[in-house]
Amino acid sequence: MSINTLKNIPYSILDLATVLDGYKAADTFKNSLEIAQQSEALGYNRYWFAEHHNMGGVASSAPSVLIGYIAGGTKTIRVGSGGIMLPNHSPLIVAEQFGTLASLYPNRIDLGLGRAPGTDQVTAMAIRGENFNAAHNFPRDIEKLQQLFSAENRNSNVRAMPGEGLDIPIWILGSSTDSARLAAEKGLPYAFASHFAPTYFEQAISIYRNNFKPSIHLAEPYVMACVNVVAADTDDEAEILSSSVKKMFLGVITGKRELLKPAVENMNAHWGQMEKEAVEQMLYYSFIGSQDTIKNNMEGFISKYGVNEVMATSHIYDQQAKLHSNLLFAGIFK
To answer: Which segments constitute the Luciferase-like domain (predicted)?
Structure first.
């Protein structure tokens, strides 16, 4: 593959608003704005937040608020949700919120939609109440959103004000083949959560492309893959920095979630062989190393899967190391 291939690929950021051990959510948000401003200067295409609830180490429970904060502190980068868990909300409320954002920051707001609760079952019940099974309405609720955003809805009894008549791109997010079929059926762009759910990535994007129906929104399939990125000056340094995200995923599989921990020199003191294998399986689509290492691996990834855009998420404890990783990663596309 020639070096020019990466030059044609847009690169973006997914921010989970991870809270660092020893710090508060307020510190996380300041760090996010610093990363977003740097990302804009480095030519990143989008900056997205994901909706999560009842997780002490993740402060992105209100992504629409964070989107406004980041969009207000930047000028050109697209800002959006990766995603809003639509069954947690009524389509009208989402349309009004994103209509407000798109009115404040024209041609810069993306609306990525998922169907999972973004939390545990008990919290999902607290959020959804009698609408606990609302995930079954996901396809219909997307259609309601599209109707609310349409100019033709002006004669309806229920209108999104603001929101009606605005061009707010809708994305389908997924970690399974069901989402791929839905995105294909509706002719919408598709973002896959390969950063934590690698199992169905290859199958899902194949289903999406093979079943895609052109729409007024999109003429041909568009796949964005989210991956983990930890870049440093050397492979060894990146490996050490990556211990923070590995400990985070270890907490996921053991049920012992904690705030994001500082890097450690030797992960073997923190996990057994089975835990190591489980974490590495979840982190299968991770790019960890020097700029040259990541560039070579990313070229292979793009060549194999033909994705249209790459979205990086980086769980690095040290803010300066995270900024440096962000800089190095952008450099591989130039």
So the answer is: 18-299
Angle in degrees, 0-180, between the axes of helices 291-305 and 319-331, rounded to the nearest 10: 50
Query: Distance (Å, rounded) from C-alpha 95 to C-alpha 177?
Result: 26
Residue-level pLDDT at 257:
84
In 106-200, which ranges are continuous DSSP H helix? Answer: 121-128, 138-149, 177-186
Which amino acid appears at position 186 of this protein? K
Let me know if residue 178 belongs to a domain: yes
Q: What CATH number does the domain containing 205 carry?
A: 3.20.20.30
Residue 129, pLDDT above cutoff 80: no
- Position 269 scores a pLDDT of 87
Measured between alpha carbons, how far is 55 from 99 in angstroms, rounded to an integer? 28
Q: Is the dihedral of CA 2, 221, 141, 199 positive or negative?
A: negative
Q: Which residue has the tokens 């409320």?
A: 93
Containing H/E element for 99? helix 91-104
Q: CA–CA separation, 231 vs 241, rounded Å? A: 9
Q: Which residues of 194-215 are buried (b: 16+ CB within 10 A; e: fewer)?
A: bbbbbebbeebbebbbeebeee
pLDDT in tens, 8-56: 999 999 999 999 999 999 999 999 999 999 999 999 999 999 998 888 8
- CA dihedral (310, 106, 67, 37) in degrees, to 10, reads 70
d(CA 209, CA 181): 9
pLDDT (0 to 100) of residue 196: 87
Q: Does 133 have pLDDT greater than 80? A: no
Q: What is the mean pLDDT of residues 80-87?
A: 92
Place of tokens 């835990």: 275
In a domain, 217, yes or no: yes
Please state the domain count of the chain: 1
Domain assignment present for residue 187? The answer is: yes
Helix or strand or coil: residue 278?
Answer: helix
Both tokens of 19, joined, read 């809270």
Strand partners, 81: 49, 111
Work out the pLDDT band at 259, boundaries 50, 70, 90: very high
Domain hosting residue 25, numbered range: 4-232+286-331
Q: Is residue 260 part of a domain?
A: no
